[in-house]
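Problem: given the chain below (617 residues), write out its structure.
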Amino acid sequence: MKILQLHCNFLEYEPIRKEVSSAEEAEKKKQRFDEVLVLFTSVEKCDNTAVARQAIDETIKYLGRVKSNRVLIYPYAHLSKDLASADVALTILREMETLAKEAGVETYRAPFGWNKQFIVSVKGHPLAEQARSYSAEDITEAEANSEVKTNSKPALKKEYLILSSDGTTYEPGEYRYGPGEDGLRLLVEKEALGMESQARGEPEYIRHMKKFGFDWEAMSDSGHMRYSPEAAFIYESVAAYSADVADSLPLPVYRVRGTNMFNLDLPPVREHAELFGDRLYRVEVENRSYVLRYAACHQQFAILRHWLISYRNLPFGAFEIADSYRLEQSGELLLSYRVRRMNMPDSHVFCKDIEETENWFYRLHEKVYEEIGKLGRDYYSLYNLTSRDFFEDNKEWFKKLVQREGKSVLLCFYPPGINYYWVLNIEYHVIDAMNRPREIGTVQIDVGNARRFGITYVDAEGKDNYPMILHSALIGTIERYIYTVFDTALKMKHPTLPLWMCPTQVRIIPVSQEFQDYANGLADVLEQVGVRVDVDDREMTVSNRVRGAETMWVPYIAIVGKKEVEAASLSLRSRVEEGQRTVTVSELSSTVVRSVEGKPQLKSCLPRLLSVRPKFA
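Solution.
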């Protein structure tokens, strides 16, 4: 950033004509400012909001020396040949204006994007005319030499405590675990005590997921999954379900969609991206640097910064299933759990103040627990905090959160002195079949990104304010939810998927070709009420076909032969019930329809007859 700083008796300007399409609206009339410090400002390509803050900090020091408190920020492209784009420049100039006003400086800004005629009278003292230059590289170098580095993990010394439901805190090594807290113990050992899991070898769930067609794509980068037809059906069902969960929140939830690639030249994008350090996917296009998004935040925030929001509109939600990219270590990749390309059903809730934020955080907290409970699982939670004051000032609210969990939680305090954009992030962990904590859901209080992206609302007094933002993955990523479902299935006597997720809910096996027409007639009836049904008409023994259905965890296997035709019935095997029973097609259809009520019921795209399907690999 280049600034020509002039301490003036007065400056008078008049907008003449717009020079760029993104020019701000302005009246074509003369404006005069007396006894003012004028900052003729050129914003350069590498500038960000940290540079804006540096410039204003130095300006405030100067104002103290000359005993003044009035500033005019004047866009002036003629001081540099390495100019930022118009959008970036305007964002930086607005940030300078905001920072100066927040510091109590009487601040004005000339309209951006105009050719202006001006008259200036500069004071004659030795400090009246100064050229200033500010650089992001200078700031980065200063940060690199500081004691705590934001992107250097070893320098971050975290502190851990265990918080019980009565509000008492304990050192992790001193806590006495009660009944049902083995999961908490495993989480504490991993996160706070740094104890490595003794589990070795490939988890069993992977073999079963591959059987359904989930696998790595060998022709892509590491950590990218592919989905064969049955796996794709499961994925699409969970995606639909994640949207239903977001829509079930008792507030307006606005669906948005957009791109997965954002310009790193833009300060909000670059600053948000820097928080993820070396986990970014970068793309170079026509001498510009882009980042593949690692959550839905970029797109939702880029859209919302253009909305005109009133306090009457708050709270509200925004939702997108966002393909997201994180450059995880290749040695840590794990099918459907730790991947480099994931799909994030990202919900954001925008609130006007801390009271509303805490209220909605608790509701999201309840929703997260409600959803994992539907799978018959429980969570063990890690509460990450960036402010001890926030914890101490809200102790009763934290007790309420822990009481909802019904067990103690692990607290992690991040070191002070770093400009975090969030104050609380809860990670919800399941304990997997190999006794390892696995993070699935999250809820987070964001206090920085509204300012970073320029998202504001107008309060009851007509003033602009920044909303607080709640981030949440209520069921986790699509991949991690599916992982949890398979991990849950392996804890059952007869593993099965939730009925609404099953690619095939009913498989009909005619004992011979003689009964093929009857089997197809039953399938017609079931399909009419939305049941996903297929017919195994292959020339194999009945026992082999039954075994094949059981291998694919088909919930209901219906065998039909002479006896069933004569009785207009079918012999039914169920994965969740012992034995075999005779039922009518009407009874079976009612059972399935009742069991999936309120859940997504996608239509199968597979051919009904197994004999015409290829063997999926």
